[in-house]
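PROTOCOL LOG
Step 1. Enter all chains and additional molecules of the complex.
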Amino acid sequence: MLDVILAGTGGMMPLPNRFLTSLFVEIEGRAILIDCGEGTQVALKRVDCKLSRIKMLLITHFHADHISGLPGLLLSLGNAGKTDSLIIAGPRGLRRIVESLTVICPGLPFALDIRELDTREPSSFDWTDGENHANTPHFTITSLPMRHRIPCLGYFLELKRPPVFNPEKAKNLDIPLKFYRVLHSGTSVTLDDGRVITTEMVTDGSRKPVKISYCTDSAPFASIADFAYESDLFVCEGMYADDAMRDSMEDKRHMLFSDAARLAKQANVKELWLTHFSPAEINPKAGLQSVRRIFENTVIPTDGYHKELIKQGG
Amino acid sequence: MLDVILAGTGGMMPLPNRFLTSLFVEIEGRAILIDCGEGTQVALKRVDCKLSRIKMLLITHFHADHISGLPGLLLSLGNAGKTDSLIIAGPRGLRRIVESLTVICPGLPFALDIRELDTREPSSFDWTDGENHANTPHFTITSLPMRHRIPCLGYFLELKRPPVFNPEKAKNLDIPLKFYRVLHSGTSVTLDDGRVITTEMVTDGSRKPVKISYCTDSAPFASIADFAYESDLFVCEGMYADDAMRDSMEDKRHMLFSDAARLAKQANVKELWLTHFSPAEINPKAGLQSVRRIFENTVIPTDGYHKELIKQGG
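Step 2. Run joint prediction.
Step 3. Record the structure below.
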């Protein structure tokens, strides 16, 4: 099961009825959180996301609405009993920012594994949690420098999907049933007759990874569509529905709903979720019809909107 | 009008249904805020407290639940158009903490006037905003070192009340009506016949100051009652209603409801508001009957509880 929850949908400042934008991506009891503004820990609790499952935090940039919730989140992780280290990845300069903000939460009961990412060129790293066997979720995380007022990264998460066990193939190889479970889990076995059976012999080959793209804050530019190409889910900022805000958005290096929809179309993604609405955008859903003329499968979510990208057992 | 709003009532961490403890004290369009944890700016907006009126922020101590909302508050003050300086007072070390936290909000459009207060001895300072004439609110703010795990200050706010204009006295002195308004505002006048009339000649003398005491986080000790003596309002922490939590509270240097109530009784205050409830204290109001046996005029507030300590025109 791969569950994706958009805990908040706001930009700039938290509001009584709108938390700041952050995305919780959970698979097999492990979660990646992208961004953590003031109140994100509350937004997560409100929709029952288990803080203790967060293994990695990705920070897009150091504007307060994307990182000011860090000290509170770290303290709450400690209170929730976390002792294994937390990866925090973000733009160059991250270590200094984290050290500054955590001056009010000394003595955390877990280590911070801080990873500063390139802010001039795209970069990638692989991540898995614990034992690296076939059933452990395995992500490739790519960062792309955005075009914002300060260094900022978009993130593209690809979840590798283990090949599907095919009992027909196992049967054709006369493999006793008692070995199915081990083979299913991705481990080779030696049969009683001495034959070595590898996973590849009893599976249907690799499946296309599940891809989640997350881009905020940025002016629109073509590479976003390249990197988000054929995403299963594209979470993208849209500050305003009204195209009359074009000049202001260009100045501030942000996007309109229509910018995000055009990128979604170019990228041929399956689904677009708009987020990071301006506090002045009182009713973002009013822009839905217009934006769907550009890209049909657009969602204008409210806080806590979620979707199972892979169903239970899938 | 002196309005006091307890924006949040929680301790330790913000919850979906409970903001962190902070107190908004407003008079004549000027406000003092005490403490600012994660989400306090939202708690204030939710109950319609105007952020732009905040002239001074008092910080009790540097645990995250009392200060982590600072960067977000400062940015929102800037967005609300603030340009005059903001006083931030708190324990020694405040400057370093503020500088650390504001690494994510550089370039604020107003200055921070940081005042580090003594953490070993009580201290006092006077505060008024703008012109120091009779109708400008004038506070004396006293800080008392609390007994917590880190240096922490309790705050005692005394609002001086200007003497009341007495039209009978003015009439007896044959002062023409046209001078009443100026005399009422606290300014002396020279009559057409040459006599100089001072405010003292037409007022009823000084009134007792209004006193608000705010004590969290601390183990209970007698000096709190001395400093809070005869407060109009005593806002005091109470983490748990259940006296069985005594040992834990002594370890952590916090109070039970009953501790706060005993202090309120010793201090002979008019009214006690409990606050800073533990996240594990799901229904603080269940403790009301029991705590009122110790101090009758106890309130167990929910977020946004407020009272006009001086009515409009008072």
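Step 4. Note key features.
The domain at 2-163+207-310 of chain B is CATH 3.60.15.10 (Metallo-beta-lactamase; Chain A).
Residues 165 and 203 of chain B are 4 Å apart (CA to CA).
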